[in-house]
Amino acid sequence: MEQKSWLILAIFTCLIASSCGREMHVKNKDNHAVYNHTLATILVEYASAVYMSDLTELFTWTCERCNGLTEGFEVIEIIVDIQNCLQAFVGVAKNLNAIVIAFRGTQEHSIQNWVEDLFWKQLDLNYPGMPDAMVHHGFYTAYHNTTIRPGILNSIKEAKEFYGDLDIMVTGHSMGGAMASFCALDLSVNHEAKNVQVITFGQPRIGNAAFASYYGKLVPNTIRVTNDHDIVPHLPPYYSYFPQKTYHHFPREVWLYNLGVESLVYRVEKVCDGSGEDPTCSRSVTGNSIADHLNYYGVDLMCQQWRSCRIVMDPRVSEYGKTDHKGNFILSRDPATLVLKSNMRSTEGEVTSSA
Ligand SMILES: *[C@@H]1O[C@H](CO)[C@@H](O)[C@H](O)[C@H]1NC(C)=O
Ligand SMILES: *[C@@H]1O[C@H](CO)[C@@H](O)[C@H](O)[C@H]1NC(C)=O
C-alpha cells in the first residue's frame, strides 16, 4: 500500500480506537479471533508475573506483579521444570470466569544469546497427526516432553471439578508464547477443550505454513500481539521465496506501534489480516529491538535478573509441593482449600538450581 493511504488508514484506526475509549474491538469475518484490548492488558500481567522466581509469593499471589488487573487470582498449580528451566502456572481468575494458564519465557543468562540462537532453529519435527505440518522440535518438546504438560492437564482437571466448566485462557511471552500455543492446540485437539482463548506477546514463529493453517482452524480464538520493532516475532526467519519450507506465523497478529504525525504521537493497535504474515504489520519494519521485546502495554516482561534458573521458596509452602526424581517441582493445592498467606516469606530455605 502507498505510504499516504497507509497513513490515512492508520490515523483512521486511531480515531476509531479513541472514539470508544481504551476499548478497541474489531470483528473478523474469517475467524473467531476478536481483539479485546482490555483482555490483552489483563493477560499481559499474568505473562509478566510468571517470570517471578519467588514461588511463595507467586503461590499466594502476593508478588509485586501479582496485583492490579490480576488481583484475587487463585493459583492452583505452579510447575517448575528445573531440568529445562521452564515455569508455568495455572489458576482461576474469577473476574474473567476463566482458568488462566501462563508460561514463562526463557531465563537464560542473556536474552541476546537466546535471540541469536533463534536464527538457526530448524523445522525439524512433523507435528503428530497433521500431514505436512512441521514445527521446531525444541519448542514442541518444551511443552510436550517435560513435566509442564502433565502438570497443566492435571490442574485443569482439578479446577474444572471444583469450579465447573470455565473458559480457558492461555498466555505467555516470547518462548512462553510458543509454549502457550502448543498448549492451546493440545487442549483443543487432544482434550476436547472448547472456548480456548490465546493471547501471546512477542512470540517467535513455531512452525511452517501447513502448521499455521491447522492451528488457525483448530484454535481460532488466538491473538498474537507484536510490539513495534520487537525482534523475536521476526524469528526464526520467514523466507517468502520458499513458501513451503519456511516458518510461517499463525493468525491473528495485532501489531502495536507508534505513529508520529509531527509533534503528535499515537499508539496504534493494528489488527492484522488472517494470513499470519501480514506484510503491513510487524513485517513492515525491521525487527531490531530487544527493548521492544521486553515491554508490552507498559508491562515488564522479563525476570528481575538475567541469571541461571533459580527459584526461591518458603519451607512452609513446600508442604504443597512435590519433587520428582529429577528435581522438577510442582506446587499445587486443592482448589477447595485456601493457602494461608500470612507469615509466609522466602527469606529462608532458598532452593537454587541452575540449568
Ligand atoms: C473484553 O474483555 C473484558 C475482560 O474479560 C470483558 O469484560 C469484556 O466484556 C470484553 N469485551 C468484549 C466486547 O468481549
Ligand atoms: C519425547 O520423549 C519420549 C520418551 O522419552 C521420546 O520417545 C520421544 O521421542 C520424545 N519426543 C520428542 C518429539 O522429542
Automatic annotation (TrEMBL):
<dbReference type="InterPro" id="IPR002921">
    <property type="entry name" value="Fungal_lipase-type"/>
</dbReference>
<feature type="signal peptide">
    <location>
        <begin position="1"/>
        <end position="21"/>
    </location>
</feature>
<dbReference type="InterPro" id="IPR029058">
    <property type="entry name" value="AB_hydrolase_fold"/>
</dbReference>
<dbReference type="InterPro" id="IPR051218">
    <property type="entry name" value="Sec_MonoDiacylglyc_Lipase"/>
</dbReference>
<protein>
    <submittedName>
        <fullName>Lipase-like isoform X1</fullName>
    </submittedName>
</protein>
<dbReference type="Pfam" id="PF01764">
    <property type="entry name" value="Lipase_3"/>
</dbReference>
<keyword id="KW-0378">Hydrolase</keyword>
<dbReference type="GO" id="GO:0006629">
    <property type="term" value="P:lipid metabolic process"/>
</dbReference>
<feature type="domain" description="Fungal lipase-type">
    <location>
        <begin position="100"/>
        <end position="238"/>
    </location>
</feature>
<dbReference type="GO" id="GO:0016787">
    <property type="term" value="F:hydrolase activity"/>
</dbReference>
<keyword id="KW-0732">Signal</keyword>
